[in-house]
């Protein structure tokens, strides 16, 4: 299964929820441009005089029937994407070339990957032959009412505050493609809310947790600060 | 033999069928941009204190007279394509440089490679001197009636449903080169049919198995969703 | 926490001050384009006949609860930035792949990174998914009065001299983006002040410590020398 | 000696004929972009506990006085071309750096290289200082009558069939530079003839052995199929 | 300290003079694009059966309190420039990662680097954060009278000859940026003078030591030869 | 000393002559884009169980006082050019980093390098700081009369034949920059003369030894063949 959606919209949460609901162990790997096949499948490690094989997270999930969640999978290197191919068709096998072992996936093994379509401008994309192996679900930020509930609950602030934060985020998301790669995420809203709750005044908390980390562009920053001032 | 055709049109199935009909073992290698000569021919692996040679899939096929099928062969690295050269002329030999061994191919050994001409836009192509070593067969998606039969049979849905799915696919294939690298494949149709059969309503099944994995482009997605709505 | 601001404006000083105030050990790493994950986490080193593991600065800070300060973090290589990811979310863990060890961060461990937004013209930037993990504080040069106090105190010159030096710096900072990547920093002012105090006449000290190191461009140099002559 | 000419026009046959006529052993190396100096000169290989030196094909030819034929020499990597330099001037020596050995060429040793000038569009060319070391002979496809004789003889078909196949090839060679890197080679004609002789009808045999492997371009393919239809 | 100025204007001489005057040992490293951190700090070398650490030139200078002079420092690789950073701020330390040793610089240790601003066209430049760590002195060729003295003294020719050579050099330096990267240096003048003194006639000596090495451009060469003819 | 001039004009011959005249051993290294510092200075080689150091050609010349001739020096890699720097100034030393040895050059050691200014179009050039270390002599092809003498003598043909060959070469050299990187060299003329002497008729000998190796361009070839026909 492919989960598509912007950073911090709840893809990881969704996978954690499904794992809990299905009562299966969950193995999460945050992929990046240095994630190689060995990072997923395992490697030989020094232990005293000898070298022992240590299963990587994907191998462990395949052996023991866990859900393996590859976050931001388009960031991983090509050879990492390749090891998942024989796992995602009829064969359901994982070949460990370095060990000369071929693992047949545990019947409970499931593979979930996620990526952010908004990053394709960076030239990262999945190949058609990889896409064909998955079903896909699209994620969006929650609607304003639901997002305010989340921020109020997770950040432990009054709903009143949460609503204003969510409005700032909604406006920032309009700037996507016009100076911002992404708008303010739900995660950032929760962080700002927690700062406000700890006693920092709202504009400073918004600067610290939301507008200052989000951009270095003076014009965009001015626009974001305007959104904040309009609410607080 | 070269098999040319789009992803998921049945090239692999054809090879599996021929292997079964000829009663020969089949060794399939899904090539990718990290497939090297060693991945095909074999390597030395640690086993306890010593290092032992393990034949790769091509070597095993050459020794024992199997059909070796290199899927998406244009993806493999140049040195991987090179090891097949002496196998595909009069010599029919496989030199294993690292072992200092020269294998004469078993008389039953056959080599089949496939690639997708639609991917040439990515700059991947076979060299003329490689092409000259093979005969070639072109594959296309089955015509609509035959494809509907396949979808109805493999997805276990009524022919009525299968016909509509095939129409969506036919329309999506018109978008090739206009926003899509490839249209919806037969394989995706079978997956959508299986979801419909499991009780998911048709538009949701089409989104999950067909339109959502296929593209991240909003305009193309809207067009695809229109094709779905026109059928269901 | 991210600290953003120009070179030599006091980011490092701020971290040192906070570490002293919080009574925590501080581990500083000046990142550069050859800073790898191993430079941060540690490596095996030869010691006589055997190879022993030596913790890198980040690992030491994680184990013992220090503040780890990564200066100019955008310079570091991608794999170095990646090792901080699991440290900066709920997990607060540091995996040492090469050792097969997983360290849970000491409760006192804190991570502070800094970068200079003015260098983004060089194509160095943080990824959105990294930015989301941090709060951020913006630094600017101190205002002229405060900066003069600093220069007078640190350079041990009369306030009168310090004021003139600060005026030169303020003018040079107007040239940012018009021939200069950065203006004269507070650090350079302190160096010039110290030279003046040691008996070198002011224009020569300004050339030696400020205008000559700052640029090789004849036009910009002439402008800077004009600023110096206007004060001394 | 340099042999220049298109793929499949008989360069390799010519060398084999000359070797037979001169009664000298022939060592053929098909060069490719991964052919390194070690592939030509030899390397140390594991054999049980020790590592033994194994002469490469060029070294063997130099030692024992064979003809060494480097096919498609422009494909080889620069260091491979360099090892032949001291062999091709007055010195006639082959230095084996890794072994610390210097071999004086056997008096019977001869070096023949070939390349296809039609591939220069790919940026592959010999350096002037390399060219100066060789004499050169140009090869072309045989004239139509002679080529028909070859096809009839090698493909074991009636001359009538061979003549028609040769006409198709002649027309295809007009397309060189207008959509085709190379026309249909004599080798392809022989393969098509052999298929016809095995009972496949002529248009299908031409598609399988000639037009389908040669191109993926729809327009060029249509032109080639037209040439076939005009003959059969 | 940074010394800036054209090739052969006396930067190295200046450092040698200062070292002699201060009665300190001098360690000179001519940097180039393959100069790595290990070249400066040291490496493990084979000596019989064991591997011993050998201090590099920078390490030796740091330990024993010498002046270390890095000539053409912008040529060195990034990691080489990085090892000097902790040496050039308050810390004055040199970390030897590979040995796990941290050296505190000897109080007499001084670091001088030089580069040629005229080479910046080649894309080589110091980073602002590196420049900030140094004071800088600019060097120019000596004025014509002083340069004639130097040439007469070092080349052991009559002042009359030296004056004419210096005039040629002065004219050549006008061509900087118009076909020449650099004009004729003082060093070249001394070499030409020495050739004249050894009995070679002046135009031939100028060609041999000055104009022929300086350029391969026919037009520029003609201009330079004109300057020579005007003097001799 | 730098020798500049086209391929095959006699630079190597000149060095051999000077070495013979000065009664010094000569060590020649043909540089290429894979020539590294180790190729010049030496390396550790396996010999039975131990690894022994073997001096490279430059090291041998430095130790024993030979002339070292680096042919086509601009082809060598940057680190190879760097090892000659300390040999070509006052120091006359060769540091062997890998061995931890520093060799002071034998008083008789001399270094001569050559390159072909006509190849600068390929982006190969010497750095100004390298050029400054050498005197330079320019070489041209001999004038027609002298070149005819050489061809008659070395190729053992009548002067009449040699004169005609030289005329062809002179015309071909007019094509430099208009389709040819270099014209026909003296060396090629000698080879053609030798073929004529062995009984091959003149036009065929010229094609084999001169025009066919020189170019793959049909137009240029036609022009060259015209020059040949005009003489024979």
What features would you describe in this structure?
The structure is a homohexamer of 232-residue chains. The model of chain A has no long low-confidence stretch (mean pLDDT 84). In chain A, α6 (144-155) packs across α8 (186-197), α7 packs antiparallel against α8 and α8 runs antiparallel to α9. A 5-stranded parallel β-sheet of chain A has the order 2-5-8-1-9, with helices on both faces. The first copy, chain A, has a two-stranded antiparallel ribbon with strand order 3-4. Chain A has 2 domains: 2-138, 3-Layer(aba) Sandwich (Rossmann fold), CATH 3.40.50.300; 144-231. Chain A has helices spanning 11-22, 37-41, 57-64, 78-83, 128-131, 144-155, 159-173, 186-197, 202-214, 218-231, and strands at residues 2-4, 26-30, 42-47, 50-55, 67-71, 93-96, 101-104, 110-115, 136-138. In chain A, 44% of the residues lie in helices and 18% in strands. Chain A has 10 helices and 9 strands. Chain A is an alpha/beta fold. Chains in contact: A-B, A-C, B-D, C-E, D-F, E-F. The A-B interface holds A 2, 4, 37, 44, 51, 78-79, 81-82, 85-86, 97-100, 117, 120, 125, 128-129, 131-132, 134-138 and B 7-8, 30, 32-34, 39, 43, 45-47, 54, 72, 116, 119, 181-182, 185, 187-188, 191, 195, 208-209, 212-214, 216.
Helix content of chain A: 40-55%
The profile of the biggest β sheet of chain A is: 5 strands, parallel
Strand content of chain A: 15-25%
Strand order of the largest sheet of chain A: 2-5-8-1-9
Look at the helices and sheets of chain A and give the structural class: alpha/beta
The CATH superfamily of the largest domain in chain A bears the name P-loop containing nucleotide triphosphate hydrolases
Helical stretch tally of chain A: 10
Q: How does CATH name the architecture of the largest domain in chain A?
A: 3-Layer(aba) Sandwich
Shape of chain A: elongated
The number of domains of chain A is: 2
Low-confidence stretches of chain A: none
Main interface: chain pair and counts:
A-B, 27 and 28 residues
Instruction: Give the C-alpha Rg of chain A.
Output: 21 Å
> What's the number of extended β-strand segments of chain A?
9
Sequence of secondary-structure elements of chain A:
EHEHEEHEHEEEHEHHHHH
CATH third-level topology of the largest domain in chain A:
Rossmann fold
CATH level 1 class label of the largest domain in chain A: Alpha Beta
């Amino acid at each position: 299964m492919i989960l598509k959606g912007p950073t911090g919209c709840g893809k990881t949460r969704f996978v954690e929820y499904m794992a809990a609901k299905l009562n299966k162990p969950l193995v999460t790997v945050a992929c990046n441009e240095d994630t190689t096949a060995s990072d997923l499948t395992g490697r030989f490690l020094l232990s005293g005089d000898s070298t022992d094989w240590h299963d990587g997270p994907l191998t462990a999930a395949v052996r023991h029937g866990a859900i393996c969640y590859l976050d931001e999978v388009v960031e991983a290197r090509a050879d990492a994407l390749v090891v998942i191919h024989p796992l995602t068709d009829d064969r359901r096998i994982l070949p460990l070339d370095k060990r000369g072992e071929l693992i047949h996936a545990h019947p409970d093994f499931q593979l979930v990957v996620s990526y952010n379509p908004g990053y394709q401008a960076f030239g990262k994309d999945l190949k058609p032959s990889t896409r064909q192996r998955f079903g896909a679900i699209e994620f969006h930020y929650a609607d304003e009412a639901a997002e305010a509930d989340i921020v109020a609950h997770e950040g432990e602030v009054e709903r009143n505050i949460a609503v204003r934060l969510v409005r700032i985020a909604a406006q920032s998301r309009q700037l996507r493609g016009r100076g911002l790669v992404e708008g303010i995420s739900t995660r950032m809203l929760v962080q700002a809310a927690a700062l406000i709750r700890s006693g920092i005044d709202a504009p400073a908390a918004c600067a610290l947790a939301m507008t200052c980390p989000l951009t270095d562009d003076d014009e965009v920053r001015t626009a974001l600060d305007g959104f904040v001032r309009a609410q607080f």
